[in-house]
UniProtKB/TrEMBL annotation:
This is Major facilitator superfamily domain-containing protein. Residues 13-23, 234-247 have a biased composition (Basic and acidic residues). One of its GO terms (molecular function) is transmembrane transporter activity. InterPro entries: MFS, MFS_dom, MFS_trans_sf. It comes from Aspergillus caelatus. The keyword Secreted does not apply. The chain crosses the membrane at residues 46-69, 81-100, 112-130, 142-163, 170-192, 198-220, 273-298, 318-337, 358-377, 383-402, 423-441, 453-475. It is a multi-pass membrane protein. PROSITE patterns: MFS (PS50850). Residues 46-479 form the Major facilitator superfamily (MFS) profile domain. It comes from the Eukaryota. It is found in: Membrane. One of its GO terms (cellular component) is membrane.
Length: 499
C-alpha cells in the first residue's frame, strides 16, 4: 500500500471471524481482549452511561432556547444575529470536535477520549455560565460543543461491544433515546429560566454531566479491541524485559518511532473514508440533510405555533412532544425489526451484510416528505394545531429511521478494519454542520416562500435520495467493496488499524 494510504497492519486473524460466524458466542467464554464476550451487565452498563451522556449533549443544545430572549436583554444586544447563533454555535462546535474525536479514539483508545471530553465539557460549561458578555457566552458554547464526544463514540462503542446481529437494539437505546432530549429540553429550559434565571439552564447541565462522569469513572473501561491488544502486548513485553534485563533496550525501541505521521493520517482519515465509497457519501449526506431539517423545525416550531395558533410561552413547550413521540415510535420499530431482519437474511444468505440495514432507511426516506408536506401546508392553511404536530412526529420518525441505519451501517462496514469511529466522525461532522446552518436559513425560508412552499422545497430535496437508496439497497455491496479497495494491503493480510 502506498505511503499516503491508511495505515493497515496485521492483527490476530482469528479474532473476528469466530465472532462473525458464531452469533451469540458472547454468552460463552469471556475473553478480556474481546469486549463482545464481556458479561451482558457490563456491556449494558457502559451503553447506559454513554446513552445518558449523549442525551445530555443533545439536551444542552436546546435547553437554552427559551432563555435566549432573557440573555439578549441581559447583555443589551440585538437578537438578529445572536438569537440563532447562541443555539447553532453549539452545533458548529460539535462539527469541529467530531472530526477529531473518532481518529483520536482509534489512536489513544475510547476511554481517555471519552473522559477527557467530559472534563472539557464541564469546564467550558462553567465558563459559559459565568459569562460576562455575549461574546464570551457564544465562544464557550462553541467550545462546549467541541467537547461532546458521545456523538461519535456512542455508535463506535456499540460496535466494540456487540456482534453485528445484536447491534440494532443496542444502537436504538444508545442513540435514539438521547434524541428525545431536544424535544423535552425546551420545556425544562423554560421552567428553569422563569424560576431560577438563564444561567441555571447551564448550571443544571454542569451538575448532570458531572454526575454521569463520576458514574462513568466507576463503570467505563476501554472497549477498543486494538487498544486492549496493544496494552496487553506492552504488558507482556515489560514482563519479559524485566525477566531478561533488557528494559532500556525495549524502551528505546518502543519510543523510537515518531507518532506525528500516524496522528496526521488519523486526522484526515474521516474525509478519506467519507469519499471512499458512493454508499458512505450518499448516506452521510442524506443523514446530514435530515438532521438539518429536524433542527430547522425544532428551532422555528415555537414561533410558528405562537404566531399561527396563539400558543403562550408555557403551552408552546408541549408542541415539541410531537417529534418526541415520533422518535419513540421510530425507536420501537428499529429496535424490533432491524436485528431480526439481519438474522433472517443471515440465515438465508449465510452471512450478515451492512446493506441489510437499508430497507428501514428506504422506508424512512419515503416518510420524510410526507411529514414535511403535512406540517408545512397544514400550518400554512391554519388547519387544527394537532395536524402540523402530527407532521413533526412523522419527521421525527423518519429521522430515526435515517440516523440509526446509517450509523449501524458504518459500524457494520468498518468495524473489522477498526476505523468505524473515523467513518462516524465524518458523518457526525456533516450532521453538525447542517444542524448549525439550517436553523440560520429557516426564518428566511419561511418568510420568502411561506410555510407551505418552504417545507415543500425541503420535501422535494429529500425525495431525490429515495431512488438512490433503493439502488444502494439492491446493489450497494458491489459499490461498497469496489469503493474500499484501498483499505486492503493484500487479499491475505488481515486489516486492522495501526494504533
Amino acid at each position: 500500500m502506498k505511503g499516503d494510504d491508511l495505515e493497515i497492519t496485521t492483527c490476530d486473524a482469528a479474532h473476528r471471524p469466530e465472532q462473525e460466524n458464531n452469533h451469540g458466542r458472547s454468552q460463552c467464554l469471556e475473553k478480556p481482549g474481546d469486549p463482545t464476550t464481556w458479561p451482558r451487565w457490563r456491556k449494558w452498563s457502559i451503553v447506559i452511561c454513554v446513552a445518558l451522556m449523549y442525551m445530555l449533549a443533545n439536551f444542552g443544545t436546546i435547553i437554552i432556547v427559551p432563555a435566549v430572549p432573557t440573555i439578549l436583554s441581559h447583555f443589551h444586544v440585538s437578537g438578529n444575529i445572536y438569537q440563532p447563533l447562541i443555539v447553532s454555535i453549539w452545533e458548529l462546535g460539535e462539527g469541529v470536535g467530531s472530526f477529531v474525536v473518532g481518529p483520536l479514539s482509534e489512536q489513544y483508545g475510547r476511554n481517555i477520549v471519552y473522559h477527557g471530553g467530559n472534563l472539557l465539557f464541564i469546564l467550558c460549561s462553567i465558563a459559559a455560565a459565568l459569562s460576562q458578555n455575549i461574546s464570551m457566552l457564544v465562544a464557550f458554547r462553541f467550545m462546549t460543543g467541541m467537547a461532546v464526544t458521545s456523538l461519535t463514540l456512542a455508535p463506535s462503542i456499540i460496535g466494540d461491544l456487540f456482534v453485528q446481529e445484536e447491534r440494532g437494539t443496542a444502537m436504538a437505546v444508545a442513540i435514539a433515546l438521547p434524541l428525545i432530549g431536544p424535544c423535552v429540553a425546551p420545556i425544562v429550559g423554560g421552567f428553569i429560566n422563569s424560576t431560577l434565571g438563564w444561567r441555571w439552564t447551564i448550571w443544571i447541565m454542569v451538575i448532570a454531566v458531572g454526575s454521569i462522569s463520576l458514574l462513568s469513572l466507576a463503570i467505563f473501561k476501554e472497549t477498543y479491541r486494538f487498544k486492549i491488544q496493544q496494552q496487553s502486548r506492552k504488558s507482556t513485553e515489560k514482563s519479559q524485559d524485566r525477566s531478561d534485563g533488557n528494559h532500556k533496550h525495549t524502551s528505546s525501541r518502543n519510543h523510537s518511532s515518531a507518532p506525528r505521521d500516524t496522528i496526521l493520517k488519523s486526522i484526515v482519515r474521516p474525509m478519506r473514508l467519507l469519499f471512499s465509497s458512493p454508499v458512505v457519501l450518499v448516506m452521510s449526506l442524506y443523514t446530514a440533510l435530515t438532521y438539518g431539517i429536524s433542527y430547522l423545525i425544532l428551532t422555528t416550531l415555537a414561533e410558528v405555533m405562537q404566531r399561527t395558533y396563539g400558543f403562550g410561552d408555557g403551552p408552546v413547550g408541549i408542541t415539541f412532544l410531537g417529534r418526541a413521540i415520533g422518535n419513540i415510535i421510530g425507536l420501537c420499530v428499529y429496535g424490533l425489526v432491524s436485528d431480526r431482519y439481519v438474522r433472517r437474511r443471515r440465515a438465508v444468505e449465510g452471512e450478515s451484510k451492512p446493506e441489510h440495514r437499508l430497507p428501514l432507511m428506504v422506508f424512512g426516506t419515503t416518510m420524510l416528505p410526507v411529514g414535511l408536506l403535512l406540517y408545512g401546508w397544514s400550518a400554512n392553511k391554519h388547519v387544527h394545531w394537532i395536524v402540523p404536530l402530527i407532521g413533526t412526529g412523522i419527521i421525527g420518525f423518519s429521522m430515526l429511521l435515517t440516523k440509526l441505519p446509517t450509523e449501524n451501517y458504518l459500524v457494520d462496514a468498518f468495524d473489522e478494519q477498526g476505523v468505524s469511529a473515523s467513518a462516524l466522525s465524518a458523518n457526525a461532522t456533516l450532521c453538525a454542520l447542517f444542524g448549525a446552518f439550517f436553523p440560520l436559513a429557516g426564518p428566511s425560508l419561511n418568510h420568502s416562500l411561506g410555510l407551505g412552499w418552504g417545507n415543500s422545497l425541503l420535501a422535494f430535496l429529500s425525495l431525490v435520495f429515495l431512488p438512490l437508496f433503493t439502488v444502494l439497497w439492491l446493489y450497494g455491496e458491489g459499490f461498497r467493496k469496489s469503493g474500499w479497495g484501498y483499505l486492503w494491503r493484500s487479499n491475505t493480510t488481515p486489516n486492522c488499524v495501526e494504533i
